[in-house]
Amino acid sequence: MVSDIAALDALYPLPPAELSRQWVMSKQADILPPEWTHLSKNGWHIAIHPDANVCHLQSESGDNIGWVIEPLAYLDSRVNVAPRNTTITLPVGSEFTEAEIDRALYGRDGDGLTNGNGFVGSWTAILFSKEHIQRIYLGVVHSIVYSVEKQAIATSHNLIPGLQRDTELSRAFDPMATASYYTFGLTAFIGLKRLLPNHYLDLPTLQENRHWPKTGFNNRISGSNAAEVIVEHARKVVDVLVQQYPKISLPLSAGRDSRAVLACLRPFVNDERISLMPFTSSRPNIGSETDVQIAVQLARIAHLPQHKVLEVVPRPTDVADFQRSFVKIGEAKCTPNLGAPAREKVRPPVEVIDFPGMAGETARAFYWGKKKPSPASLEPAALARCTHSPTTDHVLRAAAEWLERIPASVRNNPADVLDLAYIEQRMGCWEAPVRYLFPGPGRSNLSLMATALSVETMLRLPEDYRAAGHLQRDMVAYGWPELLELPFNQSMGLLRVRHSSQKLRRMPRKLAGAVFRRLFPARRVTKPKGS
């Protein structure tokens, strides 16, 4: 199946009213949605949807140095806050340096090592020093788009008028038909690029530059120490977030990441400041039945009587719903949750924050498995294949350019490059745009493993430890060892017996399918693993 590109083009651009929490920045004020909040500085004009959380940034001397959009928390040696539409004082002067901004935004020193301070969440910082620096920086798993020709930056293509589709590239990726996604900074539109995590955008030139990592990850950390660092940092972040979010929504499953997040939350289970709302989605399949069985037992061990099992009721899929949601998030990816029209009608309470288990696969060799990658793994064609991208000339050039921007000391270890690719491609290109699917002010979610300190710590793990995938187990062992009484991703008792018999019955069909795909590889549609 090939996507109906004409139908997608007919939707562009969506009305600004549908683009909750999105924003656009341009030299041309006349392209901005007039009903949105307007800001301006140094010849740049910004329009921000009223649902967005926008904080003014000032230097220690009180001078305005820009804004940060959609921050969840700010951690600093002086104060830890969960800011909302307020002013934040950064520990910099009015004429700050690049090193000072790295420290203020990410808590990083000159070698790129973070102390855990800085902004948390999928934020965008727009910064203007008194004389020299004019840049946009991003949260560690966030991304935005920009056009040099149009002199515009935005959350999605909907806010930049006059874009033309790259039909050849759209058909090569075709996310709606293949469940693929645009990688290496590419988008479906000519001249529109995606600014990836760990890069900043220089505003005078609209050129992107990598700012992290600065050197190779040579200062390795043991698994047990890494687990302690990540759990304790997560608890510090949660303690700040409860200032604004007294309700925590927590998905529970049989998987590693959700249990690691639960272990991080142990000190808050009986905290009178918050209400913990754990839930598990139930569907009629083996994986979901396993999730429900294990989650119910986890809730028992953790004394979470409020745990709910929510049955997912199948309903007819409206292609128009998929297409509209797909366009809303910049045609970034297509997954089943795009087809839920109810999401357009329900505005969730602003005091609720979701803690999904994302980014933990950084520590589980997502793109290279247990096989030690070789330098050949970093060839452009190999990078395209491992990220489920087409191997067209356009994609190969983009992959080569992405690789070239990585410091040579990092490229010396292919495993580190591939795990960095997970952060920048899988999280930045595939996951980040989806946050604009859900409407309403204060619609917040945070993976506790997607902070600057957590990401850096996972990339510092020894290669064999990442291949074994033990970090989340060790996080649970440190944070809440009783939760290890239950297996990961495995049913128990009679349910396991039933699942085993079902798998045996399906074995002949799976073998036949494997043989068919081997004989006719051109017909295969590759879909990336789920999160």
What does this structure look like?
The chain has 531 residues and is an alpha+beta fold. It folds into 2 domains: 5-210, Glutamine Phosphoribosylpyrophosphate, subunit 1, domain 1; 223-363 and 429-506, Rossmann fold (3-Layer(aba) Sandwich), CATH 3.40.50.620. Helices cover 32% and strands 16% of the residues. The protein contains 16 helices and 21 strands. The strands form 4 sheets. A 7-stranded mixed beta sheet has the order 8-4-5-10-11-15-16, with no helix packed on it. A 6-stranded antiparallel beta sheet has the order 2-3-1-13-12-14, with no helix packed on it. The chain has a 5-stranded parallel beta sheet with strand order 19-18-17-20-21, with helices on one face. Mean pLDDT is 93; it is low at 522-531.
Give the gist of this structure.
This protein has 531 residues and is of the alpha+beta class.
Cα separation of the termini: 24 Å
Low-confidence stretches: 522-531
Which structural class do the helices and strands define? alpha+beta
What is the domain total for the residues? 2
Helix content: 25-40%
CATH superfamily of the largest domain: HUPs
CATH class group of the largest domain: Alpha Beta
Total strands: the figure is 21
Spatial strand arrangement across the major sheet: 8-4-5-10-11-15-16
